[in-house]
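Risk register update: the risk of archive-format incompatibility is retired. Evidence:
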Amino acid sequence: MATNPRDDITVWDLPTRLFHWGLVVFAVILVVSGKSGRMEIHAAAGEGCLVLVTFRLIWGVFGSKTSRFADFLHGPHAILRYLTRRDSFHRPGHNPLGGWMVVVLLCAVMAQGLLGLFGNDDILFDGPLSHLVGKSTSDLLTSLHKTLFLILSGLVAIHVSAVLIHWLVLGDNLIRPMITGRKPGHGEDGVVFVNSRRAVLALLCSAALVWGLLKLL
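Archived output:
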């Protein structure tokens, strides 16, 4: 049975919300540590980001409905329909454009983290996997790491701008649901969340994969 349009419905599970805000915290640490030259902290935060993104990729398959890629990745027709008839899209989770932005950001953060593993600062710090490549290759990957940072900054700016436009112009507050897990309903049912123990297992697997990458190579 559909909910009353005035009722709040469940939309984001706790693991998804913790991932989102955890990534924000790590991003701030990465920027501050990188600008201040605290490379040990920078590297640790980068490895933490890799764990989080790996977790999100796993959670995108085994998580709650709105967290799954199959739920929010739509083709061109759905995107065009959303752009031309936005009021017709009333369902929990990401809209068709927001879903693809999530994937782009995840790929960019993953690529940024992996590049950093092979980088160096030309002074005292070498990335944990820089020994696997020569100095010239490490320098190239460091340059790509810096370039991708600028691209990633642009993507984040677009993401934040879209959230603000939804909130201030369209009257759709996307921040509150990412904090509380609930949003105003439009007659649709809320999401039934999967057991959080599954998220703990996914996080442990993610940490093990990143640890294995760093220690075994």
